[in-house]
Amino acid sequence: MRRYERPVFSLLYRMVRDRALAEDLAQETFIKVLNGIASYRAEYKFSSWIFKVANNAAIDYLRKRTVDTLSLDGAPDATTSDARSRTALQLGDPRESPLQEVEARELGGAIEQAIGRLRPEYRACILLRHVEGYAYEDIASMLGLPLGTVKTYIHRARNELRGYLGERRA
Amino acid sequence: MSDIERHLSADENELWAEGLLPAARAIHLAQCATCLATAERERSFFLKLAQLERLAPAADFADKVMGEVKIAVPKV
């Protein structure tokens, strides 16, 4: 379990961008995997199984709560600048709690912020590919997506990241 | 224009950064300073992603998980 603790938690934290929630989802992931260990099939990589369960937990959460990638720009259904401002996550807000300060520091770098702006499906793909180093085929298996879709998502995610990082430099 | 003369596309820059660029195109890269500079930027971008920190959960994370795991006891 120790081996996967940080990778799984990191993926979930970057997916949901909330430390306490990421811990809850990571716990849920490990409990589900360990309690279901009898159903584990040896032909499937164990790491792929854990990441699959973790990603499903994150995507389920994000689908239920559409307020996420919004983290920086406000909710997608916010139509006025006031509504966008109210629903946007204020990184580095001087009134934030100590926990929020930790989160702002951890996910506050330019690349982290750019990742936070990606749609969840792109975010999962780019994190599994470039942070965890999984092959395209493994990611397709973990996410239950066709291989071509995974390649397209990663290609688009890279382009969007370059665009966001370029905006910051401009 | 041959494979050796043609500049690398954005997709090929990604392939090179991932170590998957075909040899004929790699020859062009070795000879073209413009393409090499672009490809190096791509590799640097991938490196930054790969170096993102593996964040740790709270210290009592494993204890909390194990408290919820039901270990099956083999029947004797």
Strand content of chain B: under 5%
**Alpha-carbon Rg of chain A, integer:** 17 Å
Low-confidence stretches of chain B: none
Shape of chain A: globular
Cα distance spanning the termini of chain B = 75 Å
* SS-derived structural category of chain B: mainly alpha
Oligomer: heterodimer
Query: What fraction of residues of chain A sit in β-strands?
Result: under 5%
- Kindly report how far apart the N and C termini of chain A lie: 43 Å
Q: Sketch the topology of chain A as an H/E string, one letter per element.
A: HHHHHHHHHH
Protein chains sharing the most extensive interface: A-B, 29 and 23 residues
For the residues shown, what is the average pLDDT of chain B?
Answer: 86
Q: What is the C-level CATH assignment of chain A?
A: Mainly Alpha
Largest sheet descriptor of chain B: none
Name of the CATH architecture of chain A = Orthogonal Bundle
How many helices of chain A? Answer: 10
Q: How much helicity do the residues of chain B have?
A: 55-70%
**Count of DSSP-assigned helices of chain B:** 4
